[in-house]
Design goal:
3 domains, mainly alpha, 141 residues, two-stranded antiparallel sheet, 434 Repressor (Amino-terminal Domain), 7% strand
Amino acid sequence: MTETTLGFMTNEGPSRKRGALRLTNLAGDDLVVLTKTELDELIENASDLADLADLADEGATAAPRLASEAVAAIMEGALHPLTAWRNAAGLTQGDLAAKAGLRPATISDLENGKLDPRLSTAGAIADALGVEIDDLIPPKA
């Protein structure tokens, strides 16, 4: 463990507030004092940035965003959520099927309400789109 000795100086010059303390180590480096809350917030923000960097390193993309018109159509039952998310991602049924490891006919059947997916199928589609499984479930009528 490194031992650090602190120097305390007051600086009343024009660049400092009157009576403010300046903390330095023996080498003259300025030191910063934070509250525990400020430190915790910095650590949390750094963790969030690290998570984003990990996603970028993995080549992950952000989830698509739905236009308000698409959300309204989903809520009215006029558009299947899977179709809305697929369109928002700019994918064809074939593209999505390939990303999810499924047949294009499966995507078509799901979008047309002819098939209810197994959990594993819904999970594969959600992963391919970058959304949660819940986002793919149509609202109750």
